[in-house]
Design goal:
The chain is an alpha+beta fold. The chain folds into 5 domains: about 120 residues, 3-Layer(aba) Sandwich (Rossmann fold), CATH 3.40.50; about 150 residues, Topoisomerase I, domain 2, CATH 1.10.460.10; about 130 residues, Topoisomerase I, domain 3 (Distorted Sandwich); about 130 residues, Topoisomerase I, domain 4 (Orthogonal Bundle), CATH 1.10.290.10; about 40 residues, no CATH class. It contains 19 helices and 30 strands. The strands form 9 sheets. Strands 8, 9, 10, 11, 14, 15 and 16 form a 7-stranded antiparallel sheet that branches. It has a 4-stranded antiparallel sheet with strand order 19-20-21-22, with no helix packed on it. The chain starts with a strand and ends in a 27-residue tail after the last helix. The relative contact order is 0.11. The C terminus is likely disordered.
């Protein structure tokens, strides 16, 4: 029988760790938490220093029984849950359930599932960290105090089944506030002017108007632009100044949880939840050919950018072998952590456990999603340890009368880290940058074309998975382990919906936020929530008493709760009555809002429970029959377009149909939105596949943050003004 029992959370992790330990070790899985607060009751004794009442989680009886039997026969027990507050709590609950002494050094930690990390960890067990337990317990009880007191109030005053979370409510408020900003936004007109210059015998290049009489120019109307064009007539452009510089571009640091979720969204189109699910698989271990079950990345819940010296040396060797000494920096610049007091530096940044396992060499053993995420993590880490890129930049200032134009270009002199990885922002910086012709100060140029364009300022963009996670991190809301659950929870509760990868508040979400703003300003306050996160960190560090923190929050919260109960009347959400008639009882059906959007329901509930989908017309006829194309939703809430005659007609499209017919074959056209590109219309007939750029009304400027350019009447953006005309 094994002398030492090691207990982890999952079977995959157990298998990965087991191969690094000898025959005297046996690794078992607890399948996550074994105890928690009860779901059916409050579970916190407020009068007795907020003592929690923990119970065995339903379904965990057999797991606990098996673990107890194994522990009885072992000489030593090691608890190896994840190296964070949640992992410490899992270990503590196991300690209680299994009857392990509080003074027993039974807790081990490791940042990566590698042989050296595991073998070193089992040599250094420690006692359970009470400060970590207190911090996690305080968070859990805080959430229970808010949720189990505030949610029933919402049931009574607004709608049964609602719930209010301490952190999630703040995230919903951020989305509601952004929507209010967008709705209140008034666009302002402005103009830009791009000129195409050339010198005889040289290539042409573009420059943008940026100054008038050496002051920054702002053109607000068509009349002002026409005056500028008039002023430029007959003016001979001259190269006034040439600035040449050599610039270094440094690599981004390795990933934290937040930056991984953001970049995985931008580059791979992963939601925060999907990123964490796939990353967990890479961390716990996968079968990699002869290597066997292998943990591929370090721990995935971290806000530190620190990298171990061993990992740095491994990366240096790989860079030297593959790219040569020029790509090895003399010194890797240390990135300063933002808000250093909040950084949980117990573990490193997210990086590959074995940097020699490059993505291509193990691609055949990974799923497509696993490969893409591993490649992202591997590339970012290796690039972070490489030499900076060196750019040769040139800026031209061109004078034409009282007006100045600026042209800039850059050429990569030495690619450095860009040989491996460019951050999403780097790719955008490089767009449109290139060589400028060889010119000298005083050279006279010719204007080949002037391209005036009318623009309108855009409202702030709605939050996406990436920008919401970034905002939560910047505001100090939540921690690495909570970003993905926050985003997932606010959608499950029906407070926000994701449309076109952007978050929109539902009517329900807006009503709840307004109610909380009025009666519970602290609960919904960003600064208050961030301060509470700081207090939890201080509890973890041993600088604050957890009971005191809870009491200071709870006493005023209860008084506010009593006032709100007396002051808030019944909030009626009026149902919109439709002309649709219930097929079972003949009543006019009403529009209800569910988790996946609007639907039709009989107002006779609960006597009559008839419901049906709400078909939103698009004004476009089905290409297969005489039906109308309507907006529908899949079981997961995703929008699609189908025929109103379904199931007789099964036409469907994920892309939005438009009224305009294909000019080539007369077929149905749909609007295509490709990330990073302007929207375009495409014929659905594969044999035709006609494409055309979407007009402004088709592209949909509305309140979206697209950068559509409105072509002005009278001044055509494609008009060429010759030098003679000027």
């Amino acid at each position: 029988m094994a002398k030492t029992i090691v207990i982890v959370e999952s079977p995959a992790k157990a298998k990965s760790i087991g191969k690094f330990l000898g025959r005297n070790y046996k690794v078992k899985a607890s399948m996550g938490h074994v105890r928690d607060l009860p779901k059916s009751q409050f579970g916190v004794d407020v009068e007795n220093n907020f003592t929690p009442k923990y119970i065995t989680i339903r379904g965990k009886g057999d797991v606990i029984k098996e673990l107890k039997a194994a522990v009885k026969k072992a000489d030593r027990v090691l608890l190896a849950a994840d190296p964070d507050r949640e992992g410490e709590a899992i270990a503590w609950h196991l300690q209680k359930v299994l009857g392990i002494s509080e003074d027993m050094p039974c807790r081990i930690e490791f940042n990566e599932i590698t042989k050296s990390a595991i073998q070193n960890a089992v040599k250094k067990p420690r006692i359970i960290n009470k400060n970590l337990i207190n911090a996690q317990q305080a968070r859990r009880i805080l959430d229970r105090l808010v949720g189990y007191n505030l949610s029933p109030l919402l049931w009574r005053k607004v709608k049964k089944g609602l719930s209010a979370g301490r952190v999630q409510s703040v995230a919903v408020r951020m989305i509601v506030d952004r929507e209010e900003e967008i709705n209140a936004f008034v666009p302002e007109e402005y103009w830009s002017l791009t000129a195409k210059f050339s010198k005889p015998g040289q290539g042409s290049f573009e420059a943008k108007l940026n100054k008038y009489k050496n002051q920054k120019i702002e053109i607000k109307s068509r009349e002002q632009m026409e005056q500028v064009l008039e002023d430029l007539k007959g003016k001979e452009p001259v190269v006034e100044k040439i600035t040449r510089k050599e610039k270094q571009r440094r690599p981004a640091p390795p990933f934290t949880t937040s930056s991984l979720q953001q970049e995985a969204y931008r580059k791979l189109n992963f939601t925060a939840r999907k990123t964490m699910v796939v990353a967990q698989q890479l961390y716990e271990g996968l079968e990699i050919g002869e290597e066997g079950l292998t943990g591929l990345i370090t721990y995935i819940r971290t806000d530190s950018k620190r990298v171990s010296e061993t990992a740095k040396e491994d990366a240096k060797r790989l860079i030297l072998e593959r790219f040569g000494p020029a790509y090895v920096p003399k010194k890797v610049k240390q990135v300063k952590e933002k808000k250093e007091g909040r950084v949980q530096d117990a573990h490193e940044a997210i990086r590959p456990s074995y940097v020699h396992l490059d993505p291509l060499s193990i691609k055949e053993y990974l799923t497509r999603d696993q490969y893409r995420l591993y490649k992202l993590i591997w590339s970012r880490f290796v690039a972070s340890q490489m030499a900076p890129a060196v750019m040769d930049t040139t800026a031209l200032d061109i004078k034409a009368g009282a007006y100045s134009f600026r042209a800039s270009g850059s050429v990569i002199k030495f690619p450095g880290f860009m040989q491996v990885y460019t951050e999403d922002g780097d790719e955008k910086k490089n767009e449109g940058e290139g060589l400028l012709p060889e010119l000298s100060e005083g050279d006279r140029l010719e204007i080949k074309k002037l391209d005036p364009k009318q623009h309108f300022t855009q409202p702030p963009p709605r939050y996406t998975d990436a920008s919401l996670v970034k905002a939560l991190e910047e505001q100090g809301i939540g921690r690495p382990s909570t970003y993905a659950p926050i985003v997932e929870t606010i959608q499950k509760r029906g407070y926000v919906v994701r449309e076109n990868k952007q978050f929109y508040p539902t009517e329900l979400g807006t009503i709840v936020v307004e109610l909380l703003k009025e009666y519970f300003p602290d609960i919904i306050n960003v600064e208050f929530t961030a301060e509470m996160e700081e207090n939890l960190d201080k509890i973890e560090e041993g600088d604050l008493d957890w009971v005191k923190v809870l009491r200071e929050f709870y006493n005023p919260f209860v008084k506010t709760l009593e006032k709100a109960e007396a002051a808030i009347g019944k909030v009626e959400i009026e149902d919109e009555v439709t002309s649709e008639v219930c097929e079972q009882c003949g009543r006019n059906m009403v529009i209800k809002f569910g988790r996946y959007g609007k639907f039709l329901a009989c107002p006779g509930f609960p006597e009559c429970r008839f419901t049906k989908p709400l078909l939103e017309p698009t004004g476009v006829k089905c290409p297969r029959c005489d039906g109308d194309i309507v907006l529908r939703r899949s079981k997961k809430g995703r929008k699609f377009y189908g025929c109103s005659n379904y199931p007789q007609c099964e036409f469907m499209s994920w892309d939005q149909p438009v009224k305009e017919k294909c000019p080539r074959c007369g077929g149905l056209m749909v609007k295509k939105n490709t990330r990073g590109k302007e929207p375009y219309l495409k014929c659905i007939n594969d044999q035709c596949a006609y494409k055309i750029k979407a007009r402004v009304e088709d592209a949909g400027t509305g309140n979206r943050h697209d950068k559509s350019e409105l072509k002005p009447a009278g001044i055509n953006a494609s008009t060429e003004f010759s030098a003679q005309e000027l």
